[in-house]
Design a protein that fits this description.
The chain is an alpha/beta fold. The chain has ten helices and 14 strands. The chain has helices at about 15-30, 30-40, 45-55, 75-105, 120-130, 145-155, 215-225, 240-245, 255-260, 290-305, and strands at about 5-10, 15, 60-65, 70, 105-110, 135-140, 160, 170-185, 195, 205-210, 230-235, 250-255, 265-270, 275-285. The strands form four sheets. Strands 5, 6, 7, 8, 9, 12, 13 and 14 form an eight-stranded mixed β-sheet that branches. A two-stranded antiparallel sheet has the order 1-2. Strands 3-4 form a two-stranded antiparallel sheet.
Length: about 300
């Protein structure tokens, strides 16, 4: 640490941080030429600064015997306290540097694709409004939820929004995503305003792949009503599922926000089932070293958590 300004005043003595730094280096090396080189100053400047410090304290700190320099008893005592002061100042400067770096840090946010259109943008806008600035940047990383979980565990993501919990992660419910039953325009259900869940018994279904959370959510609904789930197509993504339904290959349960007002689909209300799935905030149990990530998590848990 090289300090260029500021001073310390105690008991009538006026000591600058520069003098403390010069004394600290000189008391360690006990060699004027080496100390001056470390401090990037001339030897006469170092000698003058140390003599000014001795005059201010009114005690000798160094004694020269022959060609060797030694600390006096006063110097030995002062070395201990000067070293502590330099150490504390260094810690303070490091902490300030850390705070500045984190202020401009990036948060790697992962989430399922269906949250892209409204939930994620709305949440980020609310966070920026809450913070009063946009000094934090986000890296948006939508993906399948099973990939998101693994990427979070392997430290490739900082925070995840997904409809799945994990025993090795912190998981807090922050929202609920409504699901809609959708059919093609020429499906018999399209003429109805609503149906009972039991009418889906053995109905051809288009689902996302079995490893997805949406599949398990729908599977649980069918199980609760004790009817058969007849999956005829497993789609790789939402667009594929929408196309299969539009082609009358089956009906499907999809997030409301991605099927609303779709020209080739008809949404059907189910009278006796709350069609929705929870959305969780997931993060690692050990808090991040990134202060911005921790602030974002605190914000979400404060304003969105149930």
């Amino acid at each position: 640490m090289i300090v260029h300004t500021s001073s310390y005043h105690q008991g009538g003595h006026f000591v600058t941080l520069i003098q403390l730094q010069y004394f600290h280096v000189m008391s360690t090396t006990l060699h004027y030429t080496k100390a001056a080189a470390i401090l990037h100053i001339s030897q006469p400047s170092l000698s003058y600064a140390l003599s000014q410090l001795e005059a201010e304290l009114d005690v000798p700190l160094f004694i020269k015997i022959g060609k060797k320099v030694f600390l006096t008893p006063y110097g030995e005592v002062f070395k201990l306290y000067a070293g502590n002061i330099i150490h504390e100042v260094d810690k303070g400067l490091d902490e300030i540097k850390h705070m500045k770096e984190n202020t401009m840090s990036e948060i790697r946010l992962g989430y399922i694709q269906s949250l892209s259109s409204s939930f994620v943008p709305d949440t980020i806008n609310q966070y920026y409004y809450y913070m009063g600035q946009k000094s934090v940047s986000f890296q948006f990383m939508p993906n399948q939820q099973y990939d998101l979980i693994e990427e979070l565990k392997s430290n490739k993501l900082d925070v995840v929004f997904a409809p799945q919990t994990d025993n090795h992660l912190i998981c807090k419910k922050i929202a609920e995503q409504k699901l809609m039953l959708v059919v093609s325009k020429n499906h018999p259900f399209s003429a109805k305003c609503s149906i009972s869940f039991v009418e889906l018994d053995n109905q051809p279904l288009v689902m996302l792949q079995k490893k997805t959370g949406l599949y398990h959510t729908v599977e649980k609904m069918f199980s609760n009503h004790h009817i058969k789930m007849n999956v005829v197509n497993e789609a790789c993504d939402y667009n594929a599922a929408i196309n299969y339904v539009a082609l009358s290959l089956g009906v499907s349960f999809l997030p409301e926000n991605i099927v609303t007002d779709h020209p080739n689909l008809v949404p059907i209300h189910i009278k006796d089932e709350h069609c929705a799935r929870p959305i969780y905030l997931l993060c690692r149990e050990k808090l991040s070293n990134n202060a911005s990530t921790n602030d974002f998590i605190d914000f979400i848990l404060k304003y969105y958590s149930d």
